[in-house]
Write a structure and sequence with these properties.
With about 180 residues, this protein is mostly helical. The protein has 8 helices and 3 strands; from the N terminus they run ααααααββαβα. The radius of gyration is 17 Å and the shape is elongated. The termini are far apart. About 5% of the residues have low confidence.
Length: about 180
């Protein structure tokens, strides 16, 4: 999808309108291919401080709804969150290529989370399906509200190589 299609999906006129939780959720959960230039344009126009805050909120909600026994998935998502927030902070500090790196990492996360990852999910009737992490977590949430019981095996979905990005202690302090 090109920039216009991306902005229509996010229900924004330009990147400065990227200010709401729903904008970040729609971006993270988008299934279609987003062109590299469209993602980069969004990151260039969006306020990096707001982007970091939206990322923090989205991942907070996401991490609250992980099965208790899935510690590796929890830790992976926590680390992805820190990388994305750290890259947004890098834009604010004027780091070279920070916008391009954030655009690439956000797209990589989005593809892994909503499209490419495979979680083995078994229904109470013994039927097995493979779903992306996003859909498996939706089904987990539904079980909390009396939906069909599922067993989840996230082990095959844990293959996500984090971009090396270091944060200083002051970055962590500012994040708190």
């Amino acid at each position: 999808m090109d920039k216009e299609e991306l902005y229509a999906l996010l229900d924004i006129e330009d990147g400065t309108d990227f200010q709401y939780f729903e904008n970040f959720a729609d971006l993270a959960e988008a299934e279609g291919r987003i062109s590299e230039e469209a993602m980069y344009a969004l990151i260039q126009e969006a306020d990096p401080k707001i982007f970091a805050e939206l990322c923090e909120s989205y991942f907070y909600d996401l991490l609250e709804n992980i099965p208790d026994e899935q510690i590796d998935l929890y830790n992976l998502l926590e680390n992805i969150k820190r990388v994305l927030i750290g890259m947004a902070e890098g834009i604010r500090r004027g780091e070279e290529n920070a916008q391009r790196r954030l655009a690439e990492e956000m797209d990589r996360f989005r593809l892994w989370y909503s499209v490419e990852s495979r979680v083995s999910c078994t229904t109470s009737a013994g039927e097995e399906v493979c779903l992306p992490v996003r859909d498996a977590l939706v089904n987990f949430r539904l079980t909390r509200f009396g939906g069909e019981e599922w067993d989840f095996d996230f082990s095959a979905a844990l293959d996500y190589e984090l971009d090396e990005y270091s944060m200083t202690y002051s970055d962590l302090y500012e994040e708190e």
